[in-house]
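Example: Lysosomal dipeptide transporter MFSD1.
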Amino acid sequence: DMKVNTAQFMALYAWYSWPNVVLCFFGGFLIDRVFGIRLGTIIFSVFVCIGQVIFALGALLNTFWLMDVGRFVFGIGGESLAVAQNTYAVSWFKGKELNLVFGLQLSMARIGSTVNMNIMGWVYSRVQDLLGYTGPSTLGLTLMIGGVTCLFSLSCALMLAYLDRRAEKLLSKEQGKTGEVIKLTDVKDFSLSLWLIFVICVCYYAAIFPFIGLGKVFFIEKFNFSSQEASAINSIVYIISAPMSPIFGFLVDKLGKNIIWVLCAVITTLASHIMLAFTFWNPWIAMCLLGVAYSLLACALWPMVAFVVPDHQLGTAYGFMQSIQNLGLAVIAIAAGMILDTRGYLFLEVFFSACVCLSLIAVVMLYFVNHLTGGDLNWSAKKREKMQKVA
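Written out as structure tokens, the predicted fold is:
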């Protein structure tokens, strides 16, 4: 409807990520020192709502630069909201429970993504039937209807603030904080293990989110799928991650060995991309494997940050991790669009496979660094519990 090329389309993903290169790093500071966790969550939710409205207006008015602005504003709230969400989680849950909690968080997020990918096409068709024509107006109205979910998110933030405040009074509990005192010099204190976790995160997600963003057309062109079939297979990663994330979170809680889980996830992801790039096997196999691997990695990787940094740097570490993840996603999204426009899908899949290979190298390095430094990242759950009792 907007007559844009792939590079312009992927720029919408990049505009979401750019503000978070900075804001995620300071998200914990804003929560601790400026807004507080409750007000901060509400403010970030409001930014998400405003961003979605601007984005929809851009489509409605056939003004692409306004859509870019909308994605930028949406991004200001989106990832900072994730920092607030993590802060709530760390505030209410400790130790081995965190793996399951992170899994449940991811599960709910992916349910939303799945509904979006499979329902918005249907909503667009209904709006088209109502108006009697296609074009920017139809797209804009569809996006405006999609914005209702942002209002629901805001209402949840308000309810959560009420519940947290009530618990604070009843349980004499302090308001959730990241526990950080922002100092740029804190970065120099980050361990090599933490930097390797950052590398794994950036390189891995660079081969997931941009791929899913471009996946629908890939399945239509390479496998001759219909638009509906392509949407279904493209969303299977999120469909699988919804139920599997809490299950894997529970397993990692009970068994430990986080690095081994991450290694399995990265190897499986690499196999999936190689299958999609070089074979014409049924793509449902590769995409199902990708969904399982994606769920497993999130449950095992993100909680490891809490194992390698002191409590007072936890917010800084999570904020920094999301910050460089967004930098990577912004750059990769633009690069992916350019590669697809000039070289095609085979080169793009090779590029994504190379990103996963870098992630695999970082996982292997993390295993040996952790082993040589006597780290606890690969402890079993029983050993970790025993050592915590001793401490």
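Residues 215 and 234 are 6 Å apart (CA to CA).
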